[in-house]
Amino acid sequence: MKSSLLGGLILLLAAVGCVRWTAEEKATFDTPDRSYPYRKPLTSLGAKFGALPDAVQNTVRAEAGMAEIHEVTKSARGDRVYYVISFKDVENFPPLYVAPDGSVLNPDLTVAVAAPHDASGGLAGGPAQTVTVKDLPEKVLAVIHERAPGAEIGTISKEIWGDHVVYFVSFEDPERHPKLAVAAEGTVIHQAH
């Protein structure tokens, strides 16, 4: 028994000896040494780009091709959510402003190139576009919280009705919280019972 205890102690000491850092390695972690190469935030441009709605990603690819992206920012002015994509080559690729539906916006947020629509007025490729809670205007979120406080959202789709954007929100418990149709400015269009 003494020999196995002694053998275990020797292995433990050997393992502890293996994890010692040199003074130089320890200093790298103990001081704010700017030469250490890993100082970037935990989110990458690829992750930010991948989190964009599909329509926005498609617009960026169509407008800028493979231009190197410098930054992706989600912004809002009033109730309008939009994305600003900045490129490393600023001379050839000024910041690109894109609406969640994929429309190219001017810097003043007027529409420069509308997202493609089909003959029925819906977004091209189908009558509705699936969106996430983070893409909703503040007034639409306020209506959802007022009409269905604490309800778990199932799906959200967005449709263009003429000049109006309408969000259709369905909930996980449709008997307690019926589907809502809310215009971008916060007006309830329809609530099924």
| Overall pLDDT confidence | 78
Tally of contiguous helical segments = 5
Residues in helix, %: 25-40%
Shape category = flat
The major pleated sheet works out as: 5 strands, antiparallel
Separation of termini? Answer: 76 Å
Order of helices and strands: HHHHEEEEEEHEEEE
Into how many domains do the coordinates divide? 2
What portion of residues belong to β-strands? 25-35%
Major sheet strand order: 1-2-3-4-5
By DSSP, the count of extended strands is 10
Rg (CA only): 26 Å
Q: Strand pairing plus helix content: what structural class?
A: alpha+beta
Unreliable segments (pLDDT under 50, ≥5 consecutive)? Answer: 118-122
Please render the helix and strand layout as text.
Layout: H1 2-18, H2 23-30, H3 45-51, H4 54-64, E1 69-77, E2 80-87, E3 96-98, E4 104-105, E5 111-113, E6 129-130, H5 138-147, E7 153-161, E8 164-171, E9 180-183, E10 188-191
